Amino acid sequence: MGQRSAVRGRRILPTAGLDGRFQVAGAGYLSATQSHGAMPPDAVVVGSGPNGLAAAIVLARAGLRTVIREAQPTLGGGLRSAELTLPGYTHDVCSAVHPLALSSPFFNSLPLGDFGLTWVQPPAALAHPLDDGTAAVLERSIDATAAALGRGGPGWRRMHEPFVAHWSKLAPDVLAPPLRIPRHPFLMARFGLAGLRSATGTARKLEGTHARALFAGNAAHSFLSLDAAGTAAFGLLLSVAGHAVGWPIAQGGSQRFADALLAYFRSLGGEVEAGAPVEHLDELRSARVVMLDLGPHQVARLAGERLPSSYRRALLRYRYGAAAFKLDWALDGPVPWTAAECGRAATVHLGGTLEEVAASEAAHERGEMHERPFVLFVQPTLFDGSRAPAGKHTAWAYCHAPNGYAQDLTGHIERQVERFAPGFRDRVIGRSVLTPAEFERRNANLIGGDINGGMMDLHQVFARPVARLVPYRTPLPGVYICSASTPPGGGVHGMGGYHAARAALAEVLN
Questions:
Q1: What is the pTM assigned to this prediction?
Q2: Exposure check for the chain: N or C terminus, fewer CB within 10 A?
Q3: Is residue 84 part of a domain?
């Protein structure tokens, strides 16, 4: 017999599996796809980013009538795409490359291919050019990568191979709440011990400029000084994922990923309201479950005095990290890289040596900008011609800056591109600039331009957004936080939403 739930007298029968399926059973009980008339929803998800979409799908699959409310007119959060430069040129507004999406045990459990999503895998996951005209390349094959890295190859293999071989087991533990007992404790302990080191210390264990630079570029996705403890985990995570699943892009733009998630959600009977901001939590009082794909500061504002003062103060103490300053370009031809290997990857890290990348990342933590910032560069149209007119191209790049940085960094970024691709500026026929302030205007979760959902130092990995055994649960009954400000943090993997929704269902079933 199923347990009696708090959701309008339904019986919910749990079944095993990561996808979180539950069945609504019994004569006279409504299924998620039947008409509900004016009946208020069982669950409301505020925000339609990847975590909000994941939470909504988990709840809808459990048989709860679920509604997504999105403040913006376009759904998808960090998965939006738009014609930012010229008509006919599709650009990803925020996230563009998705190694963590293919590493996500939840997203991998969904039939998104049936709803229009096609992944495009470039021949190489990543390229990192250097001033001598060569580039370090992260190949899908560890053997090929190690061979190309020369004397740095054996160390690269020793560092990554144990985790690549067992990525399908390790990824669910890496993308789980930090206080949960891992399913594979010895493997996770090995990864954790390696990841606790600083990225600079770990990179220096590798031989050769190319291997060290390749690792440093991946670790710089932490938005932290590479001398900080725990930054090695970011380098390992992204390098291992590159070998195990690649660094793919969504055909047609990241919006297609969001659209597939939304289409699947709707197929479960889910409902969506765009351009529908929530001004106060009291608006959602009739729902049994409220999932907030919002940052801690937004949650504090939305809940107001309903929150206990100690919890509210803890939310407001939450720290945001470095910002992104982003450029998008329409180009009349491909990027003229000096190193031909850069044409084999959609993602190119522009930062030079380990020492240069480390200096750039240390500068923004001091509230300064390095003259040669580390730049993350994406060239999707080399592998997906649907995003631009025939013979034309798009490119996407950002650098890290102090939170809320207000000065124009266009010159800094374009000089870094020119450094490794002389003549690049001559191919620009359209340009879009997204400052930290513009990022926040487009998505209120991105405080000061922080696209990572808050600083990801060791403290806020374990206390995200506050130190609680179930970090998704707020003190308010039925109200949960499911944004990138919850474990496991930033990145397009949906696991914050998945774990938050599972926590909510566990309480609904009691």
A1: 0.91
A2: N
A3: no
